[in-house]
Every structure is written in structure tokens, then in C-alpha cells.
Amino acid sequence: MAAQLKSDLDIDAELVVGGSGELSVWVDDRKVAEKSWGRFPEPGAVVTAVRDAIR
Q: Which of 43, 30, 53 is nearest to 1 (CA)?
């Protein structure tokens, strides 16, 4: 996911260890994507969510 954000948006993501199986994507203090129902978000959806959050 971090590599996708770097290549698509030229953003250096900070990876923070969370709970087992957790994936949350934050922009500043706003959660923009997360794993739900046991499924990870698609990388393209995360890029779109981050792009929208930084506009």
C-alpha cells in the first residue's frame, strides 16, 4: 500500500504497527480507509481515498 501511494501520489506513507490483522489508513487525524469484514481495501480505492482527503 505504501509503495502504491508513493508511485501514484508521490506520498511517503508512515507505517505504524497496529493490532493483528489491522489495516487503517489515516490522513492527518482522519481515517480514510480500513480493513472490514475480513477484507483489505483495494489499493486503487486507498489511493482515491487519500487523494480526496488531501485536496
A: 43
Per DSSP, what are the bridge partners of residue 8?
none
Segments making up each domain of the chain, as ranges: 2-54
CA gap 4, 38 in Å, rounded: 21
Q: How far is CA 34 from CA 13, 21, 37, in A?
A: 15, 11, 10
Enter the DSSP assignment of 36. Answer: B
Q: Check residue 18 and give its pLDDT.
A: 86
The reported pTM is 0.85
